[in-house]
UniProtKB/TrEMBL annotation:
Transmembrane segments: none annotated. This is histidine kinase. GO terms for biological process: regulation of DNA-templated transcription. One of its GO terms (molecular function) is histidine phosphotransfer kinase activity.
Length: 663
């Protein structure tokens, strides 16, 4: 085709149309005025016109107006003997589309050198343009990607490197091209690359491989890799492309989420422990353990200043995870005094490096001690301040590495400290109440014991008097006095029993006896004193052998029958129902009196509990059922009540039967 520039043969000499038509490029000839003489099939393919449609027409109609001037000038130049080569311009196609072409225009002469016309040879640039644009687009995408995109040969040498790679790994394109990929791989992970390459060689893509790579300066970077084989146009694998996404932040976020989750779990446990716990020492230990875990400290200590029962200051402290040095020294007065100087302000103290801290100068002896004997670099001290703004103590955390505690941890601990302060306040109250209670129990025990002796001797004297007195009236008075004395006596005995139960000193004296016989005796005794109620016994057994404290069981039966009489003043009957099963005997004492409201049922066996509406006109201390329950349960029996308000109650208790006799 180049021959057209300097044609040696004339168009007239040969019919060249077949050559023209087989050409890949469009070939047209024009006369020197610009009229079309020849038009080949490639020209038809590119611009749509057939040869017939254009022959003899001036070329102008297929040149866009804005290019007409330049093209005319070019044409003149060619006619004058010049040429135009690979000139990019535009032609209008038959359907009026602009078609980009690359045009070469030359003068055609005959053998004698006479000018015959002008040839225009061109090809369609559109396809090439699209490919170029696509290429440019891809290049732009690669360049603007945040991910690192690089390629390497099958031997692992880096052949391309985008901006993203530069940002993630820190090397510029110039620095890295030609380097081996192992440059970016941590030593311990080098085998990963062999694995990847062997897959790539087999045409297998490696997707989302989460691993670690090394950036400039040895920085470790968590990356997610996708590696694909690169093929040449014949499909041979010639290298690999690698997309690396920096997932350091994701990993950090993941770790942060995990950390938050554990923190939450720990906080939850502390919350629970604190709200349930009422003993200062237990709270101190739980809080210390949990906050030590939360801060990641090597040791944590909790100081708590409190007062004992008689107002002396006592210092408790709990320690957790003492991994460095010894925290024993923390208990010493010297340390305490030094810490107090920090605590006084009630402010949190967070120190990144103990010797470089501005507070070092004011507390040098303490700081030196911490550093030297306990290897503390990071220190976090969080005061525990109670409602009245009193600093009662504090949490101290240490670590041998500097800058181990963050503001976040400081806040977490401050939150826990606030909770702990409230819990300690409660614990203090509870301990005070408990101490008072213990004192009261002790007093009741002592008082009833002291009352018992004079009561017994009074009873003795009255009985002698009763025997020796012959006057009817006096005897009646003495009888009345004795009855009242018995009442006091039994109240005092009950009080003494309560005190014994409280102090765990209610001792039982077990013997084997027949409960049925005991029931008969008790019923007879109570019946003797009751003029209002008839006590009926309904039993399905003849003998009921039990091993129990006979006196205490008698006390149980008397208590329940007395209550049944006492709380059914308008009734005339108390029914005792005895039922035996294989293993136990159940005794029910039923009355037809006031009954008990449902909401009161659960309190009925509590110490000092009385139903208020009855309390004003029926005397009692509210301890009979408490003692009864204790006695029954100490015999491995059960006690409960079924009652309907206004209709009456039935109290039940069970006792295990002796095995040999049971069944
Ligand atoms: P006390 O009878 O001295 O008050 P108890 O401990 O024996 O003390 O009884 C506690 C409370 O239970 C009584 O005050 C009374 O309100 C209620 N109670 C006990 N037994 C009966 C009963 N059989 N019927 C109705 N209420 C009863």
């Amino acid at each position: 085709m180049e021959d057209f520039n300097k044609p040696l043969i004339s168009l007239n000499d040969f019919d060249l149309s077949s050559i023209f038509n087989s050409a890949h490029d469009a070939v047209i000839t024009l006369d020197i005025n610009g009229h079309i003489i020849h038009w080949n099939s490639a020209a038809t393919r590119i611009l749509g016109y057939t040869a017939d449609e254009v022959t003899d027409r001036h070329i102008d109609f297929m040149i866009p107006k804005e290019l007409a001037f330049d093209e005319k000038a070019d044409f003149q130049r060619v006619v004058a003997g010049g040429s135009v080569e690979h000139y990019q311009t535009i032609r209008l196609s038959k359907n009026n589309q602009k078609v980009n072409i690359s045009l070469t225009a030359s003068l055609i002469r005959d053998a004698q050198g006479r000018v015959l016309g002008v040839s225009h040879i061109f090809h369609d640039l559109t396809v090439q343009k699209v490919a170029e644009e696509k290429q440019a687009m891809l290049a732009a995408i690669i360049e603007s990607s945040d991910d690192a995109i690089l390629s390497k040969t099958l031997d692992g040498f880096i052949t391309s490197w985008n901006k993203g790679a530069e940002l993630i790994f820190g090397y510029t394109e110039e620095e890295i091209i030609g380097e081996h990929i192992s440059f970016l791989i941590p030593k311990e992970r080098l085998s990963e690359e062999d694995n990847i390459i062997s897959k790539i060689k087999r045409g297998i893509k490696v997707e989302h491989l989460e691993t670690v790579r090394i950036g400039k300066g040895g920085r470790k970077i968590a990356v997610s890799l996708t590696i694909s084989p690169v093929k040449d146009k014949d499909g041979n694998i010639i290298g690999a492309s690698k997309i690396a996404r920096d997932i350091t932040k994701n990993k950090e976020a993941e770790r942060a989420i995990k950390r938050h989750a554990t923190d939450l779990a720990v906080l939850n446990t502390i919350g629970k422990a604190i709200s349930e716990g009422l003993e200062a020492e237990m709270i101190l230990q739980k809080v210390t353990d949990a906050t030590t875990q939360l801060t990641g400290a090597e040791f944590g200590t909790f100081y708590y200043n409190t007062k004992d029962g008689i107002g002396n200051a006592i210092q408790l402290f709990a320690t957790s995870a003492a991994a460095v040095g010894s925290v024993e020294g923390f208990g010493s007065a010297e340390f305490r005094a030094l810490f107090d100087s920090i605590f006084l302000g009630g402010k949190i103290v967070r120190i990144e490096e103990i010797r470089k801290d501005e507070r070092y100068l004011n507390h040098a002896p303490l700081f030196d001690l911490l550093k030297v004997s306990m290897q503390v670099s990071s220190l976090l001290v969080v005061p525990v301040t109670t409602k009245g703004n009193v600093v009662v103590g504090g949490l101290v955390f240490g670590h041998s590495r500097p800058a181990m505690f963050s503001r976040n941890q400081e806040n977490l601990v401050a939150g826990v400290a606030a909770q702990a302060a409230t819990a300690l306040d409660n614990a203090k109250l509870y301990e005070e109440v408990r101490a008072l209670n213990a004192k009261k129990d002790e007093f009741i025990g002592l008082a009833s014991h002291e009352l018992k002796t004079p009561l017994t001797s009074m009873k003795g004297f009255l009985q002698i008097l009763e025997r020796n007195e012959s006057g009817e009236l006096n005897r009646a008075f003495i009888k009345k006095a004795l009855k009242q004395l018995n009442k006091i006596s039994s109240l005092v005995s009950d009080l003494l029993d309560v005190s014994k139960i409280q102090s765990g000193k209610l001792y039982l004296d077990f013997e084997t006896f027949d409960l049925q016989t005991l029931l008969h005796e008790v019923i007879e005794l109570v019946q003797f004193t009751s003029e209002t109620h008839e006590i009926e016994l309904d039993s399905d057994s003849i003998v009921l052998p039990v091993q129990a404290d006979k006196q205490r069981i008698e006390q149980v039966i008397i208590n329940l029958i007395s209550n049944a009489i006492k709380y059914s003043p308008d009734a005339s009957k108390v029914l005792i129902r005895v039922r035996k099963t294989d293993l136990e005997v159940r005794v029910g004492i039923q009355d037809f009196g006031f009954g008990i409201e449902t909401e009161q049922l659960e309190n009925i066996f509590a110490r000092f509990f009385r139903v208020e509406s009855l309390a004003s006109h029926i005397s009692g201390l509210g301890i009979g059922l408490f003692i009864t329950k204790e006695i029954v349960e100490r015999h491995k029996g059960r006690i409960w009540v079924e009652s309907e308000h206004g209709k009456g109650s039935e109290f039940f208790f069970t006792l295990p039967l002796i095995r040999e006799f049971a069944g």
